[in-house]
Amino acid sequence: MKLIIAIGLLSVAMLLFFALSAKQRSKTQQSHFSILTRYPKIFRYLAVFFVGLATFPLCSYYGNSIGFIALYLISTPILLSLIILQRN
Fold first, then answer.
1. Which of 18, 49, 60, 73 is most buried (CB neighbours < 10 A)?
2. Residue 39, Ramachandran bin (φ over 0: left; ψ between -120 and 50: alpha; else beta)
3. Distances in Å between the alpha carbon of 27 and those of 13, 17, 34, 86?
4. Buried b / exposed e across 19-52, counting CB within 10 Å, b at 16+?
5. SS (H, E, C) the chain
């Protein structure tokens, strides 16, 4: 259960980071996520908070040192899938 919570929080955080990136900002303004571009700093801080919040279940599940490595190992495929899905 802790792993599912961490994956969900990381997915939301990576989606926010990706939608607020410089290359995606024009597409985000035209979509129904246009509120993200009105307040980009708030949503970036929220994404950072979600990443920080996702480290707690990972560190309690795997341990402190492996939890941070697991954070990067889990977030990489999520970000890659977002990039691949947006290319089409």
1. 18
2. beta
3. 18, 14, 9, 10
4. bbeeebeeebeeeebeebbeeeeebeeebeebbe
5. CHHHHHHHHHHHHHHHHHHCCCCCHHHHHHCCCCHHHHCHHHHHHHHHHHHHHHHHHHHHHHCHHHHHHHHHHHHHHHHHHHHHHHHC
Distance CA 74, CA 21 (A): 20
Q: Which amino acid is at 12?
A: V
User: Tokens standing for 63?
Assistant: 């341990």
Residue type, 82: L
Given pLDDT bands bounded at 50, 70 and 90, which one contains residue 88? Answer: low
Summarised one tens digit per residue, pLDDT across range 24-58 is 888 888 888 888 889 999 999 999 999 999 999 98
